[in-house]
């Protein structure tokens, strides 16, 4: 039994990663396409064998409710459109997989969770790192205290962008700049590997005056998160540097480093651990997977076996609450406490 997916939005992520990944899935398959471009729809449908009757525009999107081959609607649109398409999608009675960041604001996330609950459909946020083997291994090392208690985390996700007209540089469509787009990986991965929630954050934000890329959204955000037990995570994200994406955890008896931590592939994981006063270094050989396929098969499994997803809507909401606190701190110059009260129970 393979669960049928309608992919909404045929941009880079859908065309280069998600649709090809669906062909490799064990429990998921491509069932329908939604796009604003009839030419693109026709071309992609032909390439992947989707029937013309399973191709929809944004106007006919709601007709997905009448397509019995579609079980899941996967929203891969600009962030500012996620809420509208999740709300309309929930009304079709199909389950919803929504790209990250879940929305533009925490208030929007709450509406999306409520709409899916009212419709009785499952909602998952596409946090592919939860299904990436190196990051999962790191979670295991931390939670089993292989390197003693975790003391400090250093996480960074930076890249450059060049087109000020792209939706990622428009506040209404992107919600923010580097933080919700790529900094979110540092934030969500830290919560994922620690299995803990930050109690306080402090942020520092900057945008170069006069740079048209950053008139509406931030160029850089640097922030700290404090966790119980005195664990501090030092995170950074930038939209105007050469690519750099790493994750590093320092424990009492050693460290673990993942290079390319949030990339689609090419993760390299190393470990340093103490033997007396000597540090032994080890490269961990962990086979790669297709994160997108693993993520979709996880959601399909939740649907087939009626289970709660691991990456819940509440998980996405919590990230937005924390990001809003980081922005507030950057604005006021003061640390901001977090006590969201969100129910963060997950599926297995
Ligand atoms: P993209 O710009 O390549 O594609 C966006 C698509 O939305 C395009 O096909 C565009 O035509 C369509 N669209 C519909 N209405 C639009 C409007 N009003 N303005 C602009 N575009 C409109 O973007 P993308 O990189 O594919 O990102 C899509 C979503 O996926 C975003 O939420 C992004 O954060 C997320 N994403 C996730 C990952 C990941 O690794 N999980 C990676 C990249 C992007």
TrEMBL record:
Belongs to the Gfo/Idh/MocA family. Residues 4-127 form the Gfo/Idh/MocA-like oxidoreductase N-terminal domain. Keywords: Oxidoreductase. This is Dehydrogenase. The keyword Hydrolase does not apply. The keyword Signal does not apply. GO terms for molecular function: nucleotide binding; oxidoreductase activity. Residues 139-338 form the Gfo/Idh/MocA-like oxidoreductase C-terminal domain. The chain holds residues 88 to 435 of 440 of the full protein.
